[in-house]
Structure formats: structure tokens, C-alpha cells
## 1
Amino acid sequence: MKAIIVTHGGVGSPVSHGDGCQKAAEEALDTLRKTSSVLQAAVRGAAVLEDDPRFNAGTGSNLRIDGKTIEMDAAVMDSDGNFGAVAGIQMVKNPVLVAELVSKSPHLMLCGPGATEFARRYKIPWYNPITPKARERYKKVKKNLSKRRLPYWAKRWLNLPYHLEGCSDTIGIVVSDGKGNFAGAGSTGGTSYMLRGRIGDTPIIGSGIYVGKKGVVVSTGIGEEIIRRMLSKEVYEKIASGISPQKASDWGLTLFKPQKPANITPVGIIAVNKTDYGISNTHQMAVGIIKQS
Ligand code: GLY
């Protein structure tokens, strides 16, 4: 087996958190060995990252603008065309496990209370993912937005540069088994400034994730900008045309032209094909890598 597995802790995550990403990659490899399933490997690896409170997904997710709510998005996909996603799911430990369950249902995506209810039907227990660190980050967000009424702070929010406010964005994993099978997964607590009900790129096929017969691409960063560019699908098409995952990922970043140097949109991309991987990011990003020779 010549597996290649890459994980990330979100664009903006300190490189020193790479140990968590490497642990997730190793869990994925172990699962691949045991099950021969790239999808299972991606799901298990992503769940390890969701359980690490240093990352903005599962435990440790960002709070919404109300300071009380966590709504999480996640998706899984493989090169056999299986896809499942949840958006705005609440009070579960591992949104990626629910996304996997959705991939086995007649639907592709479930959102909000329906997604949470679906999880309960599968006996996924109630779990509060709020951490003290997430509350601290929220204090910063609140300070930046000031105490103005909604129309004012909403205006100001739209004018804010793309701050990560001390948090990272999304976790992700890409898996190749070296035999032409690929899978990926992503999970997030969203960005720093979010209204309730806002959905980012992570659960949107072609935006936060895309998997085809030639490889897999998973993206991290400001969801609205990633969705506008259908980033993962565009980068995948480059790989499918024979360009290396590294060159394709580097090209993906060129789609985000900064208005000013100080306002570079945070974006990260991880990708693999059958023989190689690529990692590109605008800001620091913790990663884990396994490439068997
Ligand atoms: N990339 C995660 C989000 O924008 O929600």
C-alpha cells in the first residue's frame, strides 16, 4: 500500500499544533489498514481533529455572533461518488460522523434542527462543544463589533478585514490509498464573525471539498470567498488535467487577489492524487503528512 494522507488544522492554526494533525493522519492510516476504506479513514482522521480543542471544529468550535450558539458544518466525500454533509448542526461531538451517516441516506445534506434530530435517531448523544477558549475568542469578536445595534454592527462587520481573531478555520483531511481510491472530509465551527444560520464552504460540494477519480481537494478559509470561486472543484480540475497537486494548489491561491497586502483572504488548500500531495496556504497552517514509499 502506498497511501498518501494529508491533514490540516485550518488556515491560521499555529504550526506548533502539527502534532494534532499528525495524530489524525496516523489514525486515518490505521483505519485504512484495518478497513481498506478511504472514506472510513478520512472520517476517523477528521474525528480526531474535531476532538482536539485547539482546532475550530467539533470541540473548540467558534461561537456565533449571539455568544451562545455553536452551529457546525461538515462534509465527507469519496471517489465512488458518495457524499454527505451537515450544516448548522448543534450539540453533537463529531459533525463528521453525522455527515458520514447522511452519505448513506437518500439525501446529500441536512441542516439545522433536522440534522441534529437525524443524529439523535442514530443515537448520537447530546454534547456541548463550547470551550473556555471559544468564549475568550468571542470576547474579542464582541469588542470589535462594539455594542451598537444590529444594523450598525452588521454594517461594520461587513467592512471588517478577514480577521481570524486568534482562531483557525476548519479542519480537513485528504486520503489516497495508492490504488486509485480517494476520500476527503472537512469540519468547522465557521469563521469569527457569523450570524446564526450562516453556512460556509465546508459542507458545499465543490467549494470546501471535491473528490473525483483523479484525486481529492479540501479547502479552508473564508467560506464566502471559497464558495464564490468553487475552489476545491477548480483545483481538482487542474489535477484531473495532469497538473501536480502542489502546482494545482498554488494556482488555487492565485484566485484570491488581495485588494491590499493587509487584507489577504485567509485560504488553505490540501490535495492528493495517486502519487503525490500538495499544500498551499496564505497564512500559517498546521498540517500532518504521511506519504508511504
Ligand atoms: N471555511 C469555513 C467557513 O467559512 O465556515
## 2
Amino acid sequence: MKRYSIFSLARNALSHHEDWPQAWRSPEPKPAYDVIIVGGGGHGLATAYYLAKEHGISNVAVLEKGWLGGGNTGRNTTVIRSNYLWDESAHLYEKSLQLYEGLSQDLNFNIMLSQRGVVNLAHSEHDLRELSRRVHALRLNGIDSEVLSLDEVRRLIPILDCSPAARYPVLGASVQWRGGIARHDAVAWGFARAADARGVDIIQNCEVTGILRDGGRVTGVETTRGAIRAPKVGCVVAGHASVLAAMAGLSLPIESHPLQALVSEPIKPVLHTVVMSSAVHAYISQSDKGELVMGAGIDTWNSYAQRGSLPVVAHTVGAVCELFPIFGRVRMMRSWAGIVDICPDASPIISRTPVEGLYFNCGWGTGGFKATPGSGWVFAYTIARDEPHPLNAPFALERFSTGALIDEHGAAAVAH
Ligand code: FAD
Ligand code: PYC
């Protein structure tokens, strides 16, 4: 076993980080692969990793037009939970949460999972009824969830304004203790490193500009670095799924919107759980660095520009200060946006398509970070076997013609 002494720590601190091994290679694209994954966010990298690990398919390329995790993976507010209402979603997100719970060990990379609990505040009798309905549904699915009384909320979050004089007084809450946050970059990097170690080629700065087909079957992709052939192509390009689909002559039931988030200057630890309120329309957690990480609902217009608008930021800061007047004196540091693809039922699409060998994993809207490992796991299964796993069968494209929609607008809550 390698031993680390105070001397080796000091030597590494002064080494200017030289001679570190590369976390993953940067290979030239080969002319052909068994599978091409378009999109080097968490979901695409997880798919490649599980293709290699679970299905022995490692002749795989992940093609990313920018840098790994530069899309929504690196822009999200890192909330993880599995408290979805309907059985189909609860099972899928719970699979993901369980994978998260073992992910640092599996990838041998610290993803900084912090299961600090996710609290959803109730501000009316209606909220209370909705929250307890969800808690009961979750418990029937074996997922941890409980209702908190106002006193319990007060004890858990002493800095929350629980006064009856508040515009939306807090009446209680629900909590999922196993929920929390994880480090978003580490999730992408951990999957990248582990996929690379299993032989997957990760190719950055390689934009897919066309989907090559012969008759009704996919044969590869056109890219800014030339054509690359493959009998199977999986598209995992959150925010740009419709753009990729159009390259194959497909139209998806998706709308693309900016979603914003913002962080404050770092302050001492004061907030130990994730807090969400649909009524004031904001959510907040405190990062390990001390920054307050907060977020908003989507900007109402469609856009592919990864920036938001001042009114949404102003609304969110106002809402957070209503819940936590103590934060009124904290200075904001920066805000940003990502583009989220939203389906009419606020549930994702993980599916084969009418083009043979072409698969789509998209429509995670405002809530796909929590699904990263689970999504990759079921998508790898779907691509490897050319059939859905029972966990993602309900999320196929066919639901938009059969009408078997899975309405999770309530679970997406604040961010919608
Ligand atoms: P991405 O990380 O966006 O990866 C897709 C990749 O595809 C990108 O890197 C992009 O560059 C690439 N790409 C696109 N087009 C092409 C092309 N033509 N060729 C090659 N590559 C291409 N979810 C939660 O669960 N919890 C949260 O707290 C949360 N907060 C959020 C806050 C914000 C502000 C935003 C924007 C989103 C939030 N989400 C959250 C949603 C979550 O971020 C996404 O659902 C999830 O990260 C999607 O992961 P992905 O790997 O599919 O997408
Ligand atoms: O899905 O939990 C979530 C979430 C929080 C913020 C944005 N999405």
C-alpha cells in the first residue's frame, strides 16, 4: 500500500501539479466504432461507462462539441433526490440515487455526495395535502420520505423565517433524508476517467453536424472532424435534442428553455439541508465552499442562448430573502443559465427511434442531474440490447401516441 507522509503532502503542494497522469486520453477519432455517443455531459459519459462495464462494449466513442460537462452538467445546482410521484419515475430516479450512493467507490473518484436531506416547504393546506400524498406514494414504493411538522422544520432550519406574519407562512414540510447534493464536475470527470480506463475514446471539440443513414438505418455521423461510422448512435445532448433529431428527419415533443441559477459569496456554514419552496418559487443549498447556490424557474421563452434574464434573478433573490431574511446582506457573485429540453409531461425520453440503430436520451428538463447514473445505466442497456430495460420502457417515445404520459410537473416543482 502506498503511504502518504506529511513530506509527500508538502512535496505535492509545492510541485506545481507537474507530472500528474492524464485523467483520460485525447485520441484522434477512429473511422468506425461499435457505438457512438453524441454528447459528453454526465449522461453521455455514464452511458459509455456502463456500455463498457455492464455489456462489454468498449469500442465506443463519446463525441463532445465543446468540453466535458460544459453543458448542463457543469451548470446545474446539483440537487439529488428520488421523490417523484408516479411509480415509473420513482423507480427510475431511485435506481439512480442507489447508483449515486455507491458511485465514488465504483468509479474510484470522489463525487462528494452529501446526503444532507431535501426539504420541500408547505405554505398552505393544499401544499400540505400534496406533500403528504407524495410522501405516502413514495413510501409505498419503499423510498424514504416523511412529513415534518412546523416545529420540526424550525428545529431543522433555525434561520428559516417561520413567522405567521410571512407573506407565505410555513406550515410544515416533507423531507427525503437520502437526498442532497454531489459535485457536478466530479460526476462528469469520474465517469470520463472510468470509461476511458475501459477503452472508450472521449473526443472533445468534435461537433456532430449530421446523422448518416442508409434507408431506415443509421450508419454513423458527420462531424467537424470528418465522418465516423457506427451501426448504433445514442444522442444525449440535453438542450439540443431537437436539433440532433432534425438531422435524422425526426421531430421530438420538446421545448427548449433557459434555466438560470446563481451563487453568492462564500459564507460560514449556516444551511445544512437543501430547501425548496414552490410557493415563493425558489430553492437553495449551501455548497461545501460556503456559497449559497440558488435557482429559479425556467425563462418562459424558447432559446438556445446559455444566458438568462435579470427579472428572473431579481425574483429568485427576492424569494430567497423572503424565506431567509438573514441572507438580505449577502452579496451575489454570479449567475448563469443552461438550456433545458422539456417534454409536455415533464418526464424524459429514453428510447429507440423510428430510425434503426438511433437512440435518444433527452427531455430531462430541469431535473436530470440526479438521474445521471441511472439514465446512463438504462440507456446503455437499451443500446446494447436494442430494447428498453423495464425501468425505462415507460419513457419511450410511444407514450406520446398512446397517451400514457407520466405527469411529473409537481416533482419538477420549483424549477418549472
Ligand atoms: P449536458 O451536460 O448538457 O450534456 C450534453 C452535451 O451535449 C453538452 O456538453 C453539449 O455540448 C453536447 N452537444 C450538444 N450538441 C452537440 C453536437 N451536435 N455534437 C456534439 N456534442 C453536442 N438537475 C437536477 O437533477 N438537479 C438540479 O439541481 C438541477 N439544477 C439545474 C440548474 C440549472 C441552472 C440547469 C440549467 C439545469 C439543472 N438541472 C438539475 C438539470 C440537469 O443539469 C440536466 O438535466 C443534466 O445535467 C443533463 O445532463 P446531460 O449529460 O444530458 O446534458
Ligand atoms: O430537480 O431537484 C431538482 C432541481 C433542483 C433545481 C433544479 N432542479
## 3
Amino acid sequence: MSRNTTEKLRLGMNIDHVATVRNARGSDYPSPLRAARMAEDAGADGITAHLREDRRHISDADIDQLMEHLTVPLNFEMAATPEMQAIALRHKPHAVCIVPEKREERTTEGGLEVAREENHLAHFIAPLREAGCRVSIFIAADKPQIEAAHRIGAAVIELHTGAYCDLHAESKLAERDAELDRLRDMARYASDLGLEVHAGHGLTYDTVQPIAAIGEIRELNIGHFLIGEAIFRGLQPAIHEMRRLMDEARNG
Ligand code: PXP
């Protein structure tokens, strides 16, 4: 049986792809900060932004503005590089999520290999923890990765829902359900170890509810689908519908 279902499931709105549209033309609009402020008003509990090494969407100036003007917490996604660590230590955002990053990938394609890089990551996150950032590690629903994230002292793991969403999109329903079972089991396993559990990547109106129903999960980070849906409904109605589906799954 799922636990922690009385806890509100938080929605972290990822605004990266507002910047993608802006950067496609090298203009100064649309503004990620404006989208973030609208998301706050629509009930997002936090804003997530990924400053990639190649700055393909969010820029350094976006992070400066978000840090200055947001009223909800910023979840700063970044690779485990010295440059990003220095930026995070300068800003001290509420949360830092460590993600793998390859220049050639279209998006964050897999979880972090924590088990293989345990020593490096333990040293990497120590100053961030000391600076008061809530450190999260983005990983696949995999026991050795969860155990390694726990050993290095991460407060949070974010489970990668990309494989589940891809299998759904490809109508591979038995495999999708097996992946969902794995996400459920690993959310419980991580929660029992004392880790806070988040999830995200690729979630849509069609895929969010089984994930939102997992009681151990405390936060979902959702971006690409909502920015696309905003073209048709507007940003705030798109967020309201996601919030409604999350609450229905959680309370139903
Ligand atoms: N969580 C993490 C760690 C991510 O890297 C991303 C994508 O940047 C997301 C959530 C959001 O994924 P999507 O944009 O597909 O909703």
C-alpha cells in the first residue's frame, strides 16, 4: 500500500523550453521569468531550470533573474562540473538537482551513474549541502543507484520517468506496466532509506496519474509537455489541468 498520501504532491514547473523558443530566434522573448511568475500564480510549488553547459536554453542571466524575483523555491538542475558548482555556490538556490549531461543528447536521456562515480559525487555535493542547498540526484529506478545516492548523502532522489513515458507512447503496455512497478518499488525502497523521492521527465496528461498515485513521491518536475500545451490552452490553464490530474490521482 502507498504511504505518505496525505502529503501534498508538489509540482515543479520546468521552464527550460520557454528559453528554447526565445533562443531559436536570438530574441529577448518569450521570457522564462515571465513564465515562471505565471506558473507561480497558477499554483506551481517550485520552478525548475537546467543551466546546461552549452547554454542551449536557460542562460546565466535567466538564473540571476529567477533568483532575484521568484517567490517559490528554485530547483537548479546542473551537471556535476566545477563551473556549475561555482554558479550554484554563488546563488545558493533552495535545491540543486544533479543530472547527467552529454552535449550531443537532445534532452537528459538517462539517470546519473552514481554507483560508478560515488567518490567524485560525494565530494562534489558536500559544499552544496554545507551551503544549505537540498541536493537531489536524478537516477533511474535502480537499487544500486539509490543505495549509492543514499551513501553519498543526497537528501533527495528524482526518479527518471522517461522510460515509462516512452513505453506508453510506443503502446508497449506490458513493458510500461513493468516499468511502473519498478518505479513504485524503488520509490518505496528509497523512502524507507530516508530519502525524499521526486520524479519527472516526459510526463504528460496521459502518463502523470499513475506516477502521482505513488504515495512516496513528494514532487513531480514537468516541463516540455506543459510548454507545448500552453500554445493551445495558455500556460496557466495547462498548469491547472496538470494540477487537477495530480490531485485527482493522489486523493482518488
Ligand atoms: N526532471 C529532470 C531531472 C529533468 O532533467 C527534466 C528535463 O529537463 C525534467 C524533470 C522535466 O522533463 P520534461 O521537460 O520532459 O517534462
## 4
Amino acid sequence: MNLILLGAPGAGKGTQATKISDRYGLVHISTGDIFRENIKKGTEIGLLAKSYTEKGELVPDEVTVAIVKDRLTWDDCKKGYLLDGFPRNLFQAEELDKFARIDGVVNINIDPALLMDRLCGRRVCRECGESYHVSTLNGATTCARCGGELYQRKDDNPETVGARLAVYNEQTAPLIDYYTKQGKILNFTGTEAPAEVLFEEVRAVLDKLAG
Ligand code: AMP
């Protein structure tokens, strides 16, 4: 089963991605994680990506599409994969259609008013990627799941979040229509309830899709 995870920044894609890929044995491919890793290692891709991610803008399509196209040729993708954060615009979606067969698109809808606070208060585990909101941490600085160090993403600040949300509305949201027309969209509503609640709904739908 090959899936796409769609939703605004802060909708809770990362948490659902871990749960979905665990349950269905899918490879979790996050273009944001790939860029962050490259930035950390100081690779050529990282140097290029840094200027865009810091401003909340999209890294150029040629670079992003080439990375995903290559990643999908790896052997582990034969068991199925979950794309998280890709595609981000219509061009990327059309390119993806040329080299991949997508079975379903999990779309998490969420009240936009919640996103700024969610993102600016987000703390992420360096080891396993689990995310938390600072208001629930009671001062804890390590991950409850694996003990890893929690950090704040550089782009989780009000200015960059504003830019990221604008990019989502202008460039990524039209993909909902694109995949609806393909009959692949699976719509869910993200809430403030624990992630397990949403995952139960996602699981019920994906169990059927997986057959
Ligand atoms: P994310 O972790 O998905 O929020 O992505 C963090 C940042 O990485 C984004 O704000 C973009 O700058 C960049 N990025 C991630 N995925 C893509 C993509 N599909 N196309 C272009 N840029 C991307």
C-alpha cells in the first residue's frame, strides 16, 4: 500500500505517520526530515535547502522531486510507503503520478486557528521524532517514549510559521481537489483530542483499503 499524508503544518501529520507506518509496515518518507538531516550534515542539498526552510518557503521542485524519485527506487519501498510532506504543490503531484502508484491520500483537516499555537509550542524528539506541546511537558526536556532530547525546530517561530501556513493555503491545499478527482482522498478531522483517537478512525478506513 502506497499512501500520501496531507494536511497543514501542525495538523498532526508526523504523529499519524509514525502510527500508520508502524501498523501497515510502510516506509515513512518525510521530505522535511530528509532536508533537516542534510542541513545537519552540511551536504550540498542541505546548504541549498537551508535558505528555503528558514523562510518557510518550498525548496525548488527539481531538487525535491529528484530526491523522492530516487528514494522510491530503494528496495525497502517494495513493501509500501507513506509520503509525509510530499507532494506540496500541483507540479510535484503531477510528477509523482509519472513514477509512482498511489493507493490513497490521508487528508487531515484541522481548524486553522489552532495551528500557530500548536507549531510555536511544539517540541520534537531528536531521536524518534515524537512531538509534544510545551504546555503539556511540565518542564520535561526528554522524550517520554524513548528518552531522547527534545528540541524546538528552527522554523517553528511565529514569522516562519506564518509563511508556511500561507504556502500551504496557496500551493498545497489545491491537492485536496486534485486527489478528490482521482477518487483517492480519505478525509479526517484533526481535533485537540489525543492522537490515538484520530488514529482509530484512520485505521478503520485503511484496514479496508489494505484489504
Ligand atoms: P515539514 O517538516 O514537512 O514541515 O517541512 C519543513 C520544510 O522543508 C518546509 O517548510 C519546506 O521548506 C521544506 N520541504 C519539505 N517538503 C517539501 C516539499 N515537498 N517541497 C518543497 N519543500 C519542502
